[in-house]
């Protein structure tokens, strides 16, 4: 795809390429001071025009290798300067520490860090900085079932707040999509976009609130050379508007390399070079390591960083750059303002990003938007929705056929008891496993969106709880209606109500249990841990071993098993409430004709319904709170 320059309708020079749906129109009329012309609409919406200069001194990052395994220092006292209006590439071989440095500078990593990061000459105020910056991860964490427009609309509603009218938000979205060449893909689901389009959508989503600093982890990975240069050209032009744009990059081609303004080369956590792309060759010559003729300087510096020409060369370069302190290879280094000068000339970023909350919109509005997105996703994920309904109906019918009219037959009381336990198993496994299998896939999107301040974790958690309610209730009620009627349980409203309430509570508790496991484990570990932890719950439910026969020192287990309360509750609903003698057709001896006798034998009482409800509700709240705390911990632990 050829990249050409042409005039946009606003007489703004634009960089575009051939294919109509892949056109990137980039206004290039801003300047490095962040002064933006009014006709340049997206960028004229910048809430603050004061650009951000990032300086870092003596940065170390030490990762813990695990219990009693010691620690590993990954970044070693590195220094650097990322001025505004520049497109900066952090380069280096694999494992050099590029992503780690990006994580440290963006504030994504907060533990194990030494040294100081300055923004406009002042030590970085992390919360204020997060409000002015964004982080675009290497993998495109988009909502695959939502279209480009829907993804953008949700992001705009969350990031621009309630005060901006809808038409204005839509204008902003259209303008960004147009600028990024995504206008023709507005109705395409994000999951069906090409790699380059996904990358552009990731950038578009974060551009909505016009961040002054953008961190991108390997934005060109997985793109063909044409998409790579389109993407980098776009970033270059965004930088020209006064933003500070920092990205990690593996090994750029010579043409891609020259699109960057500044390069920061890392090798095993040390800085080998910092300066403009043009001055890298003179720098290499100054340290007696001239770049061979016709060699891509980017390739050569990576070869040097990989110690292909000897370890001593790395040492020489680290010394020459003073581990990033040396700024002589910048363009006009004598004009680079000192930290003190920056402090004097710029407002503190904490002052600029006013307001106490990290998010731009109220919690109630966040919830409303997240619910809208959640219901839309459920509607789009029709396979899963129909499968859940179908499974509940089919299993209900299967139970109905196997235990046909067992509930009203005095000779089949034990069979009916087996049925009641099987119903609980169905509720537990179908909801718990579904949550364990689906929730971890949301984690990566949650991590990105939460870090980029789209919403608070509380509102996200509340929304996923509410979104699943209607379908869970429908499936449970449909299943209950089928099995209850087909298996001949007593058709009394009170018993039906009790049975349904206990079934629903078991479904909700199992879902919370799944959420708790899904919050800390990945799919593989979760699918192992979930069922394994459920086995003791079954043992303590009083089904295989009656509660009376449980060893006294293990009796506590029955108090924490939600299945015990579930079983007691539904057994009480069917055989409690002084149920009269059960009809025994064509049998001489009918052992469980008297429901009370049966209840006594399984050492359960038929009048514990409310106690069981209270116990299940308490367990439900407990598990929901634990799942939330674990989720919060997980989000912080990765940082
Ligand atoms: N939490 C951690 N625990 C242990 N080692 C870590 C941790 N995080 C990073 N490392 C190590 O630090 C080094 C730098 O990792 P980083 O991901 O920053 O490299 P990179 O330059 O981005 O590599 P790549 O280009 O392959 O992504 C690697 O050797 C990695 O194994």
Describe how the helices and strands are arranged.
Elements: E1 3-7, E2 13-17, H1 41-44, E3 54-64, E4 71-82, E5 87-91, H2 98-106, E6 113-119, E7 122-123, H3 126-132, E8 133-136, H4 148-160, H5 166-179, H6 195-207, E9 213-216, H7 225-240, E10 244-249, H8 254-257, E11 262-267, E12 270-276, H9 280-286, H10 297-305, H11 311-321, H12 339-345, H13 349-352, H14 363-380, H15 382-402, H16 413-451, H17 457-467, H18 469-486, H19 493-520, H20 523-539, H21 556-560, H22 562-575, H23 595-601, H24 609-637
Parallel strand pairs: 5-10, 5-11, 8-9, 9-10
Antiparallel strand pairs: 1-2, 3-4, 3-6, 6-7, 11-12
Adenosine-5'-triphosphate (ATP) binds at residues 63, 65, 72, 74, 92, 94-100, 248, 250.
Summary keywords:
six-stranded mixed beta sheet; alpha/beta; 2 domains; 639 residues; single chain; disordered N terminus; Rossmann fold; binds adenosine-5'-triphosphate
């Amino acid at each position: 795809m050829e990249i050409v320059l042409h005039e946009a309708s606003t007489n703004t020079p634009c960089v575009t390429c051939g294919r109509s749906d892949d056109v990137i129109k980039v206004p290039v009329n801003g300047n490095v001071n962040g002064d933006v012309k009014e006709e340049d609409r997206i960028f004229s919406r910048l809430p603050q025009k004061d650009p951000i200069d990032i300086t870092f001194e003596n940065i170390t990052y030490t990762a813990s290798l695990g219990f009693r395994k010691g620690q590993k220092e990954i970044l070693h006292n590195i220094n650097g300067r990322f001025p505004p209006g520049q497109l900066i590439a952090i380069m280096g071989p694999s494992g050099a520490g590029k992503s780690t440095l990006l994580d440290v500078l963006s504030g994504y990593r907060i533990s194990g860090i030494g040294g100081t990061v300055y923004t406009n000459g002042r030590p970085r105020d992390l919360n204020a900085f997060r409000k002015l910056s964004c982080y675009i991860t290497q993998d495109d964490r988009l909502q695959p079932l939502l279209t480009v427009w829907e993804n953008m609309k949700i992001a705009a509603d969350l990031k621009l707040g309630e005060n901006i009218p809808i038409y204005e938000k839509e204008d902003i979205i259209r303008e960004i999509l147009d600028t990024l060449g995504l206008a023709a893909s507005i109705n395409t689901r994000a999951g069906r976009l090409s790699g380059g389009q996904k990358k552009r959508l990731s950038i578009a989503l974060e551009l909505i609130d016009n961040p002054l600093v953008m961190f991108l982890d390997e934005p060109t990975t997985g793109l063909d050379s044409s998409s790579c240069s389109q993407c980098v050209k776009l970033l270059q032009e965004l930088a020209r508007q006064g933003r500070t744009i920092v990205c990690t990059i593996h090994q750029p081609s010579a043409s891609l390399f020259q699109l960057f303004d500044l390069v920061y080369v890392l090798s095993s956590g040390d800085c080998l070079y910092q300066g403009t792309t043009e001055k890298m060759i003179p720098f290499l010559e100054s340290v007696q390591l001239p770049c061979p003729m016709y060699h891509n300087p980017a390739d050569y510096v990576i070869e040097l960083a990989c110690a292909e020409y000897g370890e001593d060369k790395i040492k020489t370069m680290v010394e020459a750059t003073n581990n990033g302190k040396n700024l002589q290879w910048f363009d006009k280094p004598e004009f680079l303002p000192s930290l003190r000068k920056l402090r004097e000339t710029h407002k503190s970023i904490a002052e600029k990003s006013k307001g106490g909350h990290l998010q731009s919109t109220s919690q109630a509005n966040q919830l409303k938007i997240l619910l809208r997105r959640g219901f839309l996703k459920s509607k789009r994920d029709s396979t899963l929705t129909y499968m859940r309904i179908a499974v509940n109906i089919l299993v209900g019918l299967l139970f109905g056929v196997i235990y046909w009219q067992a509930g009203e037959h005095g000779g089949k009381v034990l069979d009916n008891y087996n049925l009641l336990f099987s119903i609980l198993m169905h509720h537990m496994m179908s909801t718990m496993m579904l949550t364990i299998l689906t929730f971890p896939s949301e984690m990566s999107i949650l991590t990105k969106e939460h870090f980029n301040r789209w919403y608070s974790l509380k509102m996200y958690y509340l929304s996923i709880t509410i979104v699943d309610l209607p379908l869970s209730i429908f499936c449970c009620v449909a299943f209950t209606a089928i099995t209850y009627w087909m298996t001949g349980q007593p058709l009394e409203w009170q018993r039906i109500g009790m049975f349904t309430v206990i079934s629903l509570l078991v479904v909700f508790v199992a879902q919370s249990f799944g959420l708790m496991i899904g919050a800390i484990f990945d799919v593989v570990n979760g699918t192992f841990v979930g069922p394994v932890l459920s086995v003791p719950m079954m043992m303590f439910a009083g089904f295989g071993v009656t509660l009376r026969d449980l060893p006294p020192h293990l009796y506590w287990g029955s108090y924490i098993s939600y299945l015990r309360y579930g079983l007691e509750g539904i057994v009480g609903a069917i055989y409690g409430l002084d149920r009269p003698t059960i009809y025994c057709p064509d049998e001489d001896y009918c052992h469980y004709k008297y429901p009370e006798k049966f209840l006594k034998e399984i050492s359960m009482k038929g009048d514990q319904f409310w106690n069981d409800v209270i116990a299940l509700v308490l367990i439900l709240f407990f598990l929901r709170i634990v799942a939330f705390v674990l989720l919060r911990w997980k989000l912080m632990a990765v940082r």
